[in-house]
Every structure is written in structure tokens, then in C-alpha cells.
Task: structure prediction
Amino acid sequence: MNHIIIGAGAAGVAAARTLLKELPGDTVTMVSLDGEVYSRCMLHRFISGERSAESINFINDGLLSCPRFSWIRGKPVTRLDGPSKTVFSGDEKTASGDTVIIASGSNSVTPPIGELKTAKNVFGLRHLDDARAIVRAAGGAEKIAVVGAGLVGLDAVDGLLELGKKTGKKFDITVVEMAPSVLAINLDPHAAAAYQRLFEEAGVKFHIARKVVNTKSDPAPEGPRIKALELDTGETIPCDFVILAVGVRPAIEFLAGSGVKTERAVVVNDRLETSVPGIYACGDAAGLSGIWPNAQVQGQTAAKNIAGWNLDYTDRFAVKNTVNFFDLLTLSVGALNPQEGDETLIREDRKGYQKLILREGVPVGVVLQGDIAGKGYWQHLIKNRIKIAGLGRSPWKVNYAEFWGLENNGEFKWVL
Result:
């Protein structure tokens, strides 16, 4: 049998490895627009010049040289015929197989504002080609506008600041964010404010709780080039180019007419199978958590189910973020802000900031800024809704030892 994988990201590569292991007599064909494998979370390090394209390649085993694996790279998938499991690029039949795993990821969203969709100096930061385009544009730029102050937007800013240090060029960077704080999805306002201050100290300007409502452009033979952004306040932000970091959308346009049911993303059951038997989906394409480890587990689960395991993907907990800018580390897990009736515990000193949200004695969210070493157990407590009230000590004193016991055979196990 031959198995088709659409996409060369974390989920797709994990699926390929698993299929080759579980089905040693079968072959795997991966088809992707990307011509390279790379870690998306390292794209800002490529912009800064700290990493090369080769050094952010996350395949370090023998996958690419496996004789049962083939990779059709640089081919945009434009259509999938569901019944025949055939992938097309334009009118060209690219590959066909007995099963398909859709791991096509997502693309940056471009809002229909002014000429953002048509201008030639507007870039996302989702693909390696985006990062390359940003580096090229930065070579002749002084003023840069970044729309969106989430992790991707601030990653781009961080990469540009480091690029400036390396090249001796000082960029004039302005960030526009419609939320009331930076990193609004990842951190509570207090922890996020610490990062805004550090970026401001590095010379970055912020317009918080503001919207871009229009653009000003210069005509050019290859298409318009934006020279300024207009905000809802009437202010104008001059720029040589724009980076958009306002969200992503599953890259599933090619599924129209395939028979695969989609809503905002591909609809899958607990085994990650779509409405068409033998076709599976995982990662951003399925609207599931796209964070790296979760995407890998999803790819592995889809592949194992093709191999007959009948596994449910149950680990849908993904509300975990680790932020690190200017060597300031922050870990957030679960809820960022309390609901009515919750108990909120906060402690802060010159070494850091910590916030814990308890709901009927059960931790539902934690933000730890500063020293986060050895704090991974909070994810287990929050994910599994383990009550910590009544232990006879401060919740801040809780640690792994509270929840381990010994089996008769001397092995450790969770006791709560």
C-alpha cells in the first residue's frame, strides 16, 4: 500500500515516520508546497541571522533517505479527489495512494483592509519563504510596521532587532495591536506589560487597543507598495514594509469538492478520520492544537490508526505557553483571568511575578514569570483538575512529591 501525506510540518513528518515503522511493507509519499523542512518556531532566528535554513531543519534521522519514502516538494496541492485518494497540482496528477493524511497546516490571515491583500511589501511570518522575504525587504528599509503583538508578531520584532544589531542598522519599528495588551492570548496583562516595557526600551513603539482601518500606497509596475497605515485614531504610521501577524487559517481550500467535510477546519472524529474513509487529518488543518508536541502526537495517532490501532486522540489540552524575550522567561498554563467566584493568589518580588487561579480548590490557571525551573507539574495539575486545597500548606509550596506514591513492586505512580 502507498500512503499520501499532504504537508511537511511537524504533524506530517511524524505521520510519515510512524507509517514507515508500523507498516514495514508499505510506502509513503509526502507532497508539500514547502521545498524544505523547518521549524516554524525558529523563523525569527532565521530573520536575525542566528540560524540558517539548514539549522532549523528538524529531520535528523534517516527519513529522507529511506527507500520507502518519497517527497514531492515544491508542489502546491490544489485538489484532492476523495474517492480515488488522488492529489493534484493544477491539472497535473501529483500522487495517488490507498490512504491520505491531511497535514497541510495553516496560512497567515490577511484582513481585507486597504491594499493589504494586493500590496507587494506585505508579509506574513508562517513559512520559510516569508522569513526570506522579510530579510530581503529589511535590507532596504528603515521604517517597519508590524500588525499584531502576539507571539508571532513579537517574534518578528525580536528577529529584526537582532538583525539590526548584526548589520549595524537601526530599524524604526512600530507595532499595532487591537487587543488591550501585547501577548493577550498568551499572558495576563501584568506579565505581558513586562515584555512591552523591554521592547520599548529597545526602541520599539506600540499602539495598543488600536485598529488599522486603511492604507496609503504608491503605485508600482509589479503592484502597489504600502507607504503608511492609517489607524482608527486618525494617526498615520509610515512604513517601508508591513508584517501581518493577526492570525492563521487552516490551509484546506484544496478540499472543495473532495467529499471531505469541512467547517472552519477539517471535521474529524476521535480517531482523526474524516468523512471519507481512509482519509485522516491532523494539526492546524483539523483545527486541533498546532503546537509542536501536540501536532506530532496527532500525526502519530492518525498513522497508527491507518495501521489498525483504533486509537482515540484525547489530549486536546493545549493552553500552555512559554515566552522568552530579552532572557525573561514566562510560563502560562490554563486560564489567564479569573471567573466570578475564583480565588486568585498573586505574589511578586524583584525576581518575578506569579499568579495562581483556583476554582473550588482546583488550579485552573497559572502564570509564572522569572524562574520557571521545575514548574512543569502545574500543567498536570491543571489538565487533570487535581484539587490542591486542603493539603495543609500554601498552594505555592505544592510540588511533584505531593502526588506520587509507591506500588508494591517499588515503582512510582500518580496517587491523585
Q: What stands out?
A: The first strand starts at residue 2 and ends at 6. The chain has a mean pLDDT of 93. Residues 85 and 406 are 50 Å apart (CA to CA). The helical segments are 10-22, 43-48, 128-138, 151-167, 189-201, 292-306, 377-383.
